[in-house]
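User: Fold this; tokens only.

Assistant: Input:
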Amino acid sequence: MKYSHPPQVRMTYIDRLIREGKYPNCVTVASEFEVNRKTVQRDIDYMRDQGAPLEYDPTQHGYYYSEPNYFLPAISLTQSDMFAFFVNEQILKQYKDAPYYKEIKKVIEKIIQFLPDEITTEQTADIFSFTNPPSSSIDKQQLEVLQKAAYEEKQVKIKYHTQHSNKVSDRLIDPYAIRNQHGTWYLVAFCHQRNEVRIFALNRILTVETTEVDFYKPSSFSIEEYLKDSFGIYRNEKTHHVKLKFSPYQARWIRERQWHKTQKLTELENGSLILEMDVKGLDEVKRWVLKYGSEIEVIESKILREEIKQEVKKLSEIYF
């Protein structure tokens, strides 16, 4: 005995048979879903009420569309639904270097053709605007090779340019996951040379060579879990307690956002704000702190405070 299907499923089935040129009728559809013929007739009547150009062909003993280009809406969309759809279509443009971007874009364009005319991409563009973050150019073919290797769990050989040492090295890696962070693409992989999970910027991967050697990603590995304590994309194993004091002026903006999952805010009487968080790795925190200049003071950690002092000293040598 088949379970009961909602009307939308039966109507989608009728639509598919019509497009296949099979001329469905109430008897055949009722038999397929084990429902009463009157139930299918109500589905037909409802489709007509919604604008479906359904006609019955007595010679074929079934229904067809008198307008071949008619599209059966899969769902009923509200104005809010359509706005959300068009906005996400614009958001997708920020990831034009992603695998399958062109394929996804084509699917979206096909769907847009059948949406009601009340809202258009141009109208939402007048309301919503997105600025792409600065990003590095990457080899799309390499990206697709790495994505495939990660999916199939195949080891990969790469040549990688390390910026801080300005050297190129050969690496054998197990690609775990690919992440886009602020417009830049990264590969999280187990590096056999370093015997640990490392993060590689895709734009610094010079060559990629696939292998037929399988690897097994630990079932416990999660990209979100791996990066949850980092301030940005890069991390190390040591956790640092960071305590920052913002001026009353800058505190107005700091209060508005969640900067880190572990953050704790403490209000001071003069309007200043203390932000505390536990992070793995200080490099990106250091760059973030420096952009606030005299509006911020590093209280902890001692390592971060000393690094900021050294940067201030270097700046004074340049400007004074």
